[in-house]
Amino acid sequence: MTSALKKILVTGSNGLLGQKIIYKLRQRKDVQAIATSKGENRLLVKDGYIYESLDITSEKEVEAVFSKHRPDVVINTAAMTNVDACEDKKEECYKLNTESVEIMVAAMEKIIPGSQFIHLSTDFIFDGKKGPYTEEDIPNPLSYYGISKFESETVVTESKLNWAIARTIIVYGIVDNMSRSNIVLWAKDALSKGQKINVVDDQFRSPTLAEDLADGCIAIADKRANGIFNLSGPDPMSILDLVYKVADFWKLDKSVINPIKSDTLNQPAKRPPRTGFIIEKAKKELNYAPHSFEAGLRILDEQLKTGKV
Fold it and tell me: 41 vs 12, 35, 46, 195, 276, CA distance in Å?
């Protein structure tokens, strides 16, 4: 019977992570997946889930969609993630990253109080002075993007809902009708064309395969887990090393890669120099088992060759 199905609503379903979650959930017999994003559905496969256009900054729309579907779980992957754009458009960033979470939390508390809210967050809530970080470390964001995400975390932790926060780092992968690139595809594309690229050598991250992050979010929903979970790739590296690894994997010319320091870029937003996560909690409580960066590149390569995401 349909009523026995667990309903999982995903915001930002047109994005990289959102698409991966929907594609995984639509294959399950025990779940009714509800994909939501602003505007039209960009997924090529249209069956096996419900799609609703949803502006998460609209209280009226959020309440209408939550009342209609009454999801058991909401996974919030929607956000403004362009760090420099957030610095330049603070109002828009606050609306999308913080205010929308207040709207969704309030709607869920009112309409579906027993439900679970899984919220995506970022390593950019930290200042990058220590890294790698545990779930207990104290945030100290350097950018407005980081501030907006930390404030949204506070909204979630102070809510009356059954909540979880999934923090992640540099997500890479490929999806249908991709509107934004990510560092791996950008590097591969530029190097394939022999373009000279400047790459910072003084920032350290742990790149995360989108499929791994999707599995982690779904595991939180399946186990109805609470609290904060670090869900990133297992391999910390400099951005320069990351790009070198991309070049090596696809046998591209590394001589066009020009190492530079972050401060020469004059970017509007400050970046934390060194993040990375300790992911033991997720491994233990969620059976989270992320691929190595090289294994992730093999998966991506296979998807690029077959056209299957």
Answer: 10, 8, 8, 34, 33
Token pair 């599995």 in the structure block, residue: 215
Question: Quick check: is 198 in a domain?
Answer: no
Rounded to two decimals, the pTM is: 0.97
| β pairing state of 171-172 and 208-209 | parallel
H helix or E strand, kind and range, residue 37: strand 31-37
- Give the pLDDT confidence of 152-170 residue by residue, as tens digits: 999 999 999 999 999 999 9
Q: What are phi and psi of 20, to 5 degrees?
A: -60, -40
Share of the chain above pLDDT 90, in %: 95
- Chain segment 44-60, per-residue pLDDT in tens: 999 999 999 999 999 99
CATH number at residue 85: 3.40.50.720
In a domain, 241, yes or no: no
Tokens of 248: 């090596």
**Contact (CB, 8 A) for 156 and 97:** no
Output the six-digit token pair for 102.
């207040």
199 vs 196: CA distance, rounded Å? 10
Phi and psi at residue 259, to the nearest 5°: -70, 135
Query: How many domains is the chain partitioned into structurally?
Result: 1
Q: Which two structure tokens, joined as six digits, stand for 68?
A: 């209609």
> Which range marks the domain in which residue 13 is found?
2-177+207-234+276-291
Quick: pLDDT tens for 254-274.
999 999 999 999 999 999 999
**DSSP H stretches of helix in the chain:** 16-25, 59-69, 83-88, 90-94, 100-111, 144-157, 183-192, 210-223, 239-249, 280-286, 293-306
Residue 158 included in any domain: yes
The answer to the question of residue 83 being in a domain is: yes
Q: Which residues are CB-contacts of 261 (< 8 A; sequence separation ≥ 6)? A: 200, 201, 202
